[in-house]
Design goal:
This protein has a three-stranded antiparallel β-sheet with strand order 2-1-3, with no helix packed on it. The chain has two domains: 136 residues, Serine Threonine Protein Phosphatase 5, Tetratricopeptide repeat; 147 residues, Serine Threonine Protein Phosphatase 5, Tetratricopeptide repeat, CATH 1.25.40.10. By secondary structure, it is an all-alpha fold. It has 19 helices and three strands. Zinc ion binds next to loops.
């Protein structure tokens, strides 16, 4: 945090200096008054004492449109330091200053709403964002922030209403976002056992984003659980079209569905489809076991080796090493076992998914990154260390 402070202070200081310099053209003596008081306040901040820098800054009876930016930045600095009370005091004083331009007061209100949000005072944060909407100021940012606030609260119905209102007011929308909200509601409905309601919500998700993989994935699961395997296969095909990297999530049930419809020709066509390309390791492993059942171990092993050489991965190497255990000579078995144990550990330690926005990684797939809150930014890790 201190490092951040060191980085930000020169910016804040420079902003204040230039603001004061502009002001000094009108009132030359003001520059030196401003400068000395400003740096006294910064010194308190820098030394991180128990002093109250806001009392120093609040002595600026001449906060005007030129110096307000500096106060705005200092309020933000307090928020980043976790000093919410000071950030709120600083930003609220700008909001209440009728002498400032409308856009500066709107900027301060936006930052005040963020202060309340960071402090966990969500009702107050929501009230300030709504105030901005009522005034027609910073509309898109206010809608975005309000939607994110309700996403964190898992209040999907309000998030949908806000997204629709935003589109009607500003003409702007984020593609596929409302579909995610409907899918979240459908997930909750399913958890409560309301399957029909979930289907209605998924239909709404598809009306927002006809190509959204998530709704197809959920419909496939519903069809599978209901024994409608042909329907599940259709949905899995759409998932693969839209998000091929989701294959590891669906391959087991896709093969299971193909097996259940008792259409060996369709099953073989699908295997040929897999065989003709490079695949994620989970797809290779699932295909291998199906081929073994259909055509025997030798054909399945040949497929496996061909595929892991096309797309080498630690997981492939680990499973190949385990295959060698039974085939190895008794005097070599200990060495192969050590190799297997090491590969098991290495593979276990590798995360399966990573967020392309913030770098968050883990072993569970998320439609919304639990770290940065972005949608569709968590992806399966592809390559030697992943799939
Ligand atoms: Zn993220």
């Amino acid at each position: 945090m201190i490092n951040l402070l060191w980085l930000l202070l020169p910016v804040a200081a420079a902003a204040g200096w230039f603001a004061a310099k502009r002001n000094s053209k009108k009132h030359p003596e003001a520059f030196w008054d401003y400068s000395s008081q400003f740096h006294a306040g910064l010194n308190v901040l820098l030394n991180d004492t128990q002093g109250k820098p806001e009392t120093l800054f609040s002595e600026f009876s001449n906060i005007d449109n030129d110096t307000a930016d500096t106060h705005l930045a200092l309020g933000n600095l307090y928020r980043r330091r976790g000093e919410m009370d000071r950030a709120i005091v600083m930003h609220q004083s700008l909001v209440d200053n009728n002498g400032l331009d409308k856009d500066i007061r709107a900027a301060a209100r936006y930052e005040l709403a963020r202060d309340y949000d960071s402090a966990g005072l969500l009702d107050r944060s929501e009230k300030e964002f709504k105030e901005l909407l009522a005034c027609g100021e910073r509309t898109n940012e206010a809608y975005e922030s309000l939607m994110q606030l309700h996403e964190r609260e898992r209040d999907w119905a309000t998030a949908i209403a806000l997204a629709e209102e935003r589109e009607s007011v500003t003409g702007e929308s984020r593609f596929g976002l409302v579909a995610h909200y409907y899918c979240e509601l459908a997930t909750e409905a399913l958890a409560s056992g309301y399957t029909d309601e979930a289907k209605t919500l998924l239909a709404k998700a598809q009306s927002d984003n006809a190509d959204g993989a998530r709704a197809y994935l959920m419909l496939a699961s519903l069809a599978f659980d209901n024994g409608d395997y042909a329907e599940a296969i259709e949905h899995y095909e759409r998932v693969e079209e839209q998000r091929p990297e989701l294959m590891p999530e669906i391959i087991t049930r896709w093969f299971e569905s193909l097996s259940r419809i008792n259409d060996e020709a369709a099953l073989r066509r699908f295997i040929d489809h897999v065989r003709a390309r490079k695949n994620a390791y989970s797809v290779i492993r699932s295909s291998r076991s199906v081929i073994e059942r259909l055509d025997g171990a030798q054909t399945a092993d040949a497929f496996f080796i061909d595929q892991i050489l096309k797309r080498p991965s630690l997981k492939g190497l680990r499973d190949w090493a385990h295959d060698q255990l039974d085939k190895s000579k008794p005097e070599e078995r200990d060495k192969v076992q050590v190799m297997c144990a090491m590969l098991d550990t290495v593979v276990e330690e590798k995360p399966g998914y990573q967020c392309s926005s913030c770098g968050f990684s883990g072993n569970e797939f998320h439609w919304r990154c639990p770290s940065c809150g972005n949608w569709d930014s968590v992806h399966t890790i592809i390559g030697a260390e992943g799939e």
